[in-house]
Amino acid sequence: MSGRRDFLSMPAPENYVAGLGRGATGFTTRSDLGPAREGPSEDQIKEALAKRAAQLGQAAPTAYGAVEKKEEDEDEDRFQDPDNEVGLFSSGMNYDKDDDEADRIYQEIDDKMDKRRRARREAREAKERDEYERNNPKIQLQFADLKRSLGSVTEEEWAALPDVGDMTGRTKRAREARLAERRSYAVPDSVITAAAGQGELNTSIDTSDGTTTNFASIGAAQKSALQVRLDSAANAGGTQTATTTSSGTSTSVDPRGYITALERSQANGMQAPVEDINRARVLLESAVKTNVHNGPGYVALCRLEELAGKMHTAKKIIQKGCDMCPRSIAVWEEAIRINRDNIHNAKIIAAAGIAQNPKAIKLWQAAIELEKTVNDRKKVTRQALDHNPQSVELWKTLINDTDDLEAVKMLFAKAVDTVKLSEELWISYARVSEPEQAQQILNAARKAIPTSWAVWVQACRLQEQLGRVDMCDKVMERAVKALIKENAMLKREDWLKQAEICEEESAPVSAASIVKTTVGWKLDEDDERRDIWLQDAKDSIARSRYETARAILGHTISIFVQSTTVWHAAAELEKNHGTLEQLLDVLERAVNACPKSESLWLMYAREMWQASRPEDARNIIARSFSALPGNENLYTRAVDFEVDAQEYDRARQFLQLARQTAATDRIYIKSAVLERQLGNLDGALDLVNEGLQTWPSSWKLHAIKGQIYESLSKLKEAQEALSLGTRANPKAPVLFKLLARLQEKAGHIVKARSTLDRGRQANPKNEELLCEAVRLERRAGNTSAAQQLMAIAQQECPHSGMLWAERIMHLESRTQRKPRALEAIKKVENDAQLFVVVARIFWGERRLDKADTWFTRAVVHDPDFGDAWVWYYKFLLQHGTEQKKGEVLSKAILAEPKHGEIWQSVTKDPRNFKMGVEDLMKIAVAMAQ
């Protein structure tokens, strides 16, 4: 045991001051000084000083070294006497009358200057004081107006003040007691386990210590947990809405079932429990008793009694409310509503309510609704208008009850003359009138309401209805100028909404005019106007307002004529939501405005070719050659057109011309592939060799050369060609894969393994080479080596969907596939290959709905992945309907997938280049294993 003291018992270090490190200020107390004691005497001090001076050889000083005070020193108190001034102030003169007069004059000057500044100073101080009191009001100032108003409170109002409620915790304690009665406890797991085990076969194994392990229940529990987790993973990132299956594990919502359940719950909610009704009745009765003039309280209590089925009580309560609150419109409305079973009583109540509130429009409307005949309704409405001539709602009610058109016009004329500021009445009046008269009405409305934009919009729509399309733009231009002058211009977004409303109401020309004149409102040239307008057009397309979007893009094109982005947006709009003529017209204008845009030329030629107009497509390609000479993309597109038309000689001519004018490795690849597809392997080999002389590092040319030799059954030459390619371009993993497969085909497993090792060294962390190495070992029967390589591969590429798919489907047992799939989905959030793997697992378990959901998710997430379409089509061939198969096949054709091992091996086979997508899909389905 150490002999070192405890830290708190140790003495403090030298010069330690407590609290000094944290900034505390020290102070000295009497306890620090100690008890008082008598010091040395004066004689002792003098003796000590003399002794010290003798040792130093100096004269003996006085006590403490102080010089004795001389008697002739002047007293300092003399400076306190003004009559005894010496030194600088010793003038020898006394205070006389001149000094008094000077002081008086200075005082008068000071008073006059102070009086001159007093008004400004007092105003400034008052302003500062008011500002301070306004920012920091006192409580008595805040309630000063309320205190003053207390003087006008009558005795009846004082008597009507409610009593203070129970502020104790009685209500809280009662609520806690009710909750305690309803409290429930979780059932122990032992009870659940015992209940679940009843009636089951005993599949447990007795152990030495007497415990049992039920493997069947553990497996079922794990399977259920994995099922739920996979369902949650499917619904977390997917975009498809899955229907609820019989298993009950899907977390997606069936909209129809949800709405049905919601309606059922609402219907059940109308039947409130008795205790809730009683509790609410006590509260509401207390509310109306404490304040007998509480109109909403009577309405609420009436509806409560109606809910409880006591209609007679409800009517009595609301009648009392009418008596106590004669000025409450809500009470009279409720009384009319609840007495509608007796029309006569309802009319009497309505008449009484109107007599108390003749300006209440709602009561007049309720009285109108009680009438059965049109004439009676008109009679009541006219009486209402006599009391409320400015009510637009009453005028509309009277006009709607009138059938004669001439009478309607007369009523409108009277209405707009009475209510001059009602846009709705003016516009409705114009709509029911003749065109010429409508113009006059709108002009009068414009003068009556100069700030109304709705009148201008109606005027523009009127011109469109009359067929004066050219006048629409002029009307909107005048509208913008007039509204700017009146400072009543709408925001740009609001104008676009009005344009969409016009389009919805079949006024596309007016919509276009509104867009043309207002889409640039308050947008400067230095703003990103193009991006803003493109986003506006995109939003309108999303709301299915294509005419508005077309007008926005048209205006954008007029400003940004040479912007290919805008032309592409306009072309996509016409392609998806327009006609072929509109699309071709937009593309013609686009290539004329942007002749150097390769993408516009290619799009124009493709659309023309798909429209079954090959000659026009060829003319467009010829025009593009003049605008963009030597462009390889244009040559390849021309070759594709001729190949599709089976004009192979013409395609060869294009390729020969391209090799002469725009020679690139891609042109040589295209030429070699065409010759290989046509069966001219020698010509293809010559083209490849010619291309390699100029581009020796083009890995595609080396790959084509090796594949040609393989087609000719010259495996040695093929291996040499691919080996040369790996040395010329070691960063091409495809060459190492092709070479390793050739060596494996020749039976040289060791060489194939070595080739893949070299490829992995040259291309570290490449999932294709890692996966190919694992497959090589698996095909050779070395399962343990394949698993070891897979472990290394997943360490290098932990987020590779290809490696996870290979592991799950080929290196895991069937019972472990689903757990591994869940782990893979957590590591790789969205990968089409993994989605296909999970779908195949459910397919194997005969969970067809789940499999269909995951296949759909795969093709939606990555439509370019051809293998997903292949496996989905294979699944539908066994379990799908003809309609579903046709739908998936048509979507695959539109998607035009380019990637996928199975899909690429089929589409790039020279023997299949003339086949359609359906035939290619059948061949790929046969290869999918």
Automatic annotation (TrEMBL):
It holds the Pfam family HAT_PRP39_C. Residues 236-252 have a biased composition (Low complexity). The keyword Repeat applies. It is found in: Nucleus. Gene3D superfamilies: Tetratricopeptide repeat domain. GO terms for biological process: spliceosomal tri-snRNP complex assembly. SUPFAM superfamilies: TPR-like (SSF48452). GO terms for cellular component: catalytic step 2 spliceosome; U4/U6 x U5 tri-snRNP complex. Residues 39-50, 122-133 have a biased composition (Basic and acidic residues). Residues 12-170 form the PRP1 splicing factor N-terminal domain. Keywords: mRNA processing, mRNA splicing, Nucleus, Repeat. Residues 71-84 have a biased composition (Acidic residues). Residues 19-99, 114-133, 236-255 are annotated as: Disordered. Associated with the spliceosome. This is PRP1 splicing factor, N-terminal-domain-containing protein. It comes from Lophiotrema nucula.
